Protein backbone atom coordinates (compact mmCIF):
# COMPACT_ATOMS: atom_id res chain seq x y z
CA UNK A 1 0.00 0.00 0.00
CA UNK A 2 2.83 2.36 0.75
CA UNK A 3 3.81 2.38 -2.95
CA UNK A 4 0.39 2.95 -4.51
CA UNK A 5 -0.07 6.12 -6.52
CA UNK A 6 -3.55 7.03 -5.28
CA UNK A 7 -4.89 10.15 -3.62
CA UNK A 8 -5.32 8.38 -0.28
CA UNK A 9 -4.45 5.10 1.40
CA UNK A 10 -6.45 3.83 4.36
CA UNK A 11 -4.77 2.13 7.30
CA UNK A 12 -6.16 0.64 10.50
CA UNK A 13 -5.25 2.30 13.76
CA UNK A 14 -6.34 2.32 17.37
CA UNK A 15 -7.85 5.29 19.22
CA UNK A 16 -4.39 6.79 19.74
CA UNK A 17 -3.47 6.38 16.05
CA UNK A 18 -1.00 3.83 17.47
CA UNK A 19 1.40 6.55 18.52
CA UNK A 20 2.22 4.92 21.85
CA UNK A 21 4.98 6.12 24.11
CA UNK A 22 6.24 4.50 27.30
CA UNK A 23 5.26 7.54 29.37
CA UNK A 24 1.62 7.21 28.24
CA UNK A 25 1.28 3.92 30.15
CA UNK A 26 -1.29 2.68 27.64
CA UNK A 27 -2.16 -0.98 27.17
CA UNK A 28 -0.47 -2.68 24.21
CA UNK A 29 -2.27 -2.47 20.85
CA UNK A 30 -4.64 -5.32 20.01
CA UNK A 31 -2.65 -6.39 16.99
CA UNK A 32 0.59 -5.74 15.17
CA UNK A 33 -0.56 -3.39 12.42
CA UNK A 34 1.82 -4.45 9.63
CA UNK A 35 0.32 -2.06 7.08
CA UNK A 36 0.30 0.75 9.63
CA UNK A 37 3.94 0.26 10.57
CA UNK A 38 5.16 -0.01 6.97
CA UNK A 39 3.30 3.12 5.92
CA UNK A 40 4.64 5.11 8.85
CA UNK A 41 8.16 3.98 8.05
CA UNK A 42 7.86 5.03 4.40
CA UNK A 43 6.03 8.32 5.12
CA UNK A 44 8.63 9.53 7.61
CA UNK A 45 8.62 11.42 10.88
CA UNK A 46 6.21 14.13 9.71
CA UNK A 47 3.37 11.60 9.60
CA UNK A 48 4.16 10.48 13.15
CA UNK A 49 4.21 14.09 14.29
CA UNK A 50 0.83 14.83 12.70
CA UNK A 51 -0.70 11.68 14.24
CA UNK A 52 0.57 12.80 17.64
CA UNK A 53 -1.22 16.13 17.18
CA UNK A 54 -4.56 14.41 16.43
CA UNK A 55 -4.60 12.54 19.74
CA UNK A 56 -7.81 10.46 19.38
CA UNK A 57 -9.74 8.62 16.68
CA UNK A 58 -13.01 7.14 18.03
CA UNK A 59 -13.96 3.56 17.20
CA UNK A 60 -15.24 3.13 13.64
CA UNK A 61 -14.32 6.72 12.73
CA UNK A 62 -11.56 8.04 10.49
CA UNK A 63 -8.97 10.81 10.57
CA UNK A 64 -6.93 12.19 7.67
CA UNK A 65 -3.28 13.26 7.56
CA UNK A 66 -0.81 14.16 4.88
CA UNK A 67 0.98 11.38 3.03
CA UNK A 68 4.37 13.13 3.28
CA UNK A 69 6.99 10.87 1.66
CA UNK A 70 4.40 8.45 0.26
CA UNK A 71 3.13 8.65 -3.33
CA UNK A 72 -0.36 9.12 -1.80
CA UNK A 73 -1.30 12.70 -0.92
CA UNK A 74 -3.21 11.55 2.18
CA UNK A 75 -3.35 8.77 4.73
CA UNK A 76 -6.76 8.00 6.20
CA UNK A 77 -6.53 6.33 9.59
CA UNK A 78 -9.55 4.35 10.77
CA UNK A 79 -10.03 2.95 14.25
CA UNK A 80 -10.80 -0.70 13.62
CA UNK A 81 -13.01 -2.60 16.08
CA UNK A 82 -12.55 -6.23 17.02
CA UNK A 83 -15.36 -8.73 16.73
CA UNK A 84 -16.30 -8.33 20.42
CA UNK A 85 -17.23 -4.66 19.90
CA UNK A 86 -20.74 -3.85 18.66
CA UNK A 87 -19.55 -1.18 16.18
CA UNK A 88 -19.62 -2.88 12.76
CA UNK A 89 -16.44 -3.00 10.70
CA UNK A 90 -18.32 -1.49 7.74
CA UNK A 91 -18.29 1.88 9.57
CA UNK A 92 -14.52 2.07 9.09
CA UNK A 93 -14.92 1.86 5.32
CA UNK A 94 -17.93 4.19 5.05
CA UNK A 95 -16.45 6.84 7.35
CA UNK A 96 -13.18 6.67 5.39
CA UNK A 97 -15.09 7.19 2.13
CA UNK A 98 -17.01 10.14 3.62
CA UNK A 99 -13.75 11.73 4.75
CA UNK A 100 -12.32 11.12 1.28
CA UNK A 101 -15.21 13.00 -0.33
CA UNK A 102 -14.76 15.90 2.12
CA UNK A 103 -11.10 16.14 1.01
CA UNK A 104 -11.75 15.73 -2.74
CA UNK A 105 -10.05 12.33 -2.86
CA UNK A 106 -10.80 10.66 -6.21
CA UNK A 107 -8.66 7.52 -5.85
CA UNK A 108 -8.38 5.51 -2.63
CA UNK A 109 -6.88 2.19 -1.50
CA UNK A 110 -8.12 0.00 1.37
CA UNK A 111 -6.43 -2.95 3.06
CA UNK A 112 -8.54 -5.73 4.56
CA UNK A 113 -9.39 -4.17 7.92
CA UNK A 114 -9.86 -6.29 11.06
CA UNK A 115 -9.96 -9.71 9.41
CA UNK A 116 -8.28 -12.65 11.12
CA UNK A 117 -5.81 -12.37 13.99
CA UNK A 118 -6.92 -10.89 17.29
CA UNK A 119 -9.59 -8.75 15.60
CA UNK A 120 -11.47 -11.95 14.86
CA UNK A 121 -13.64 -10.92 11.90
CA UNK A 122 -14.04 -13.91 9.56
CA UNK A 123 -12.74 -13.20 6.04
CA UNK A 124 -15.72 -14.25 3.92
CA UNK A 125 -18.53 -12.75 6.02
CA UNK A 126 -16.53 -9.55 6.48
CA UNK A 127 -15.80 -9.26 2.77
CA UNK A 128 -19.52 -9.57 1.99
CA UNK A 129 -20.47 -6.93 4.57
CA UNK A 130 -17.74 -4.52 3.54
CA UNK A 131 -18.30 -4.84 -0.20
CA UNK A 132 -22.09 -4.59 0.19
CA UNK A 133 -21.68 -1.38 2.24
CA UNK A 134 -19.16 0.15 -0.16
CA UNK A 135 -21.41 -0.76 -3.13
CA UNK A 136 -24.44 0.93 -1.48
CA UNK A 137 -22.33 4.00 -0.68
CA UNK A 138 -21.08 4.20 -4.27
CA UNK A 139 -24.59 3.82 -5.64
CA UNK A 140 -25.22 7.24 -4.11
CA UNK A 141 -21.78 8.88 -4.34
CA UNK A 142 -20.27 7.20 -7.43
CA UNK A 143 -19.43 10.47 -9.15
CA UNK A 144 -16.99 11.37 -6.36
CA UNK A 145 -14.55 8.51 -7.08
CA UNK A 146 -12.49 7.43 -10.07
CA UNK A 147 -10.87 4.37 -8.49
CA UNK A 148 -11.21 2.32 -5.30
CA UNK A 149 -8.56 -0.33 -4.72
CA UNK A 150 -8.89 -3.23 -2.27
CA UNK A 151 -5.40 -4.45 -1.36
CA UNK A 152 -4.90 -7.97 -0.11
CA UNK A 153 -1.66 -9.20 1.39
CA UNK A 154 -2.62 -12.64 2.64
CA UNK A 155 -3.58 -15.64 0.51
CA UNK A 156 -6.90 -16.12 2.35
CA UNK A 157 -7.82 -12.47 1.67
CA UNK A 158 -6.93 -12.82 -2.02
CA UNK A 159 -8.94 -16.01 -2.39
CA UNK A 160 -11.96 -14.52 -0.60
CA UNK A 161 -12.03 -11.25 -2.55
CA UNK A 162 -11.51 -13.05 -5.86
CA UNK A 163 -14.67 -15.01 -5.07
CA UNK A 164 -16.78 -12.26 -3.46
CA UNK A 165 -15.81 -9.04 -5.31
CA UNK A 166 -17.60 -9.88 -8.62
CA UNK A 167 -20.90 -10.23 -6.78
CA UNK A 168 -20.84 -6.54 -5.78
CA UNK A 169 -18.67 -5.12 -8.57
CA UNK A 170 -19.32 -7.16 -11.73
CA UNK A 171 -17.22 -6.44 -14.81
Automatic annotation (TrEMBL):
GO BP, sorted A to Z: DNA damage response; peptidyl-glutamate ADP-deribosylation; purine nucleoside metabolic process
The record's SUPFAM superfamilies line, in alphabetical order, gives:
Macro domain-like
GO cellular component terms, A-Z:
nucleoplasm
What InterPro entries is this protein classified in? Macro_dom (IPR002589), Macro_dom-like (IPR043472)
- PROSITE patterns documented for this protein: MACRO (PS51154)
- MF term (GO), any: ADP-ribosylglutamate hydrolase activity
Annotated ranges, domain Macro: 1-169
Q: What is this protein called?
A: O-acetyl-ADP-ribose deacetylase MACROD1
Q: Taxonomy-wise, where does this protein's organism fall, top ranks first?
A: Eukaryota, Metazoa, Ecdysozoa, Arthropoda, Crustacea
Amino acid sequence: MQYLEVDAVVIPCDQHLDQRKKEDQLPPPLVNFETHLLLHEEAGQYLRNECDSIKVCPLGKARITGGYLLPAKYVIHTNAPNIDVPDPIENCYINSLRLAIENNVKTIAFPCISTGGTFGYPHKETAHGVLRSVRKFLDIYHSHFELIVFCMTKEEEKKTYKEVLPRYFPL
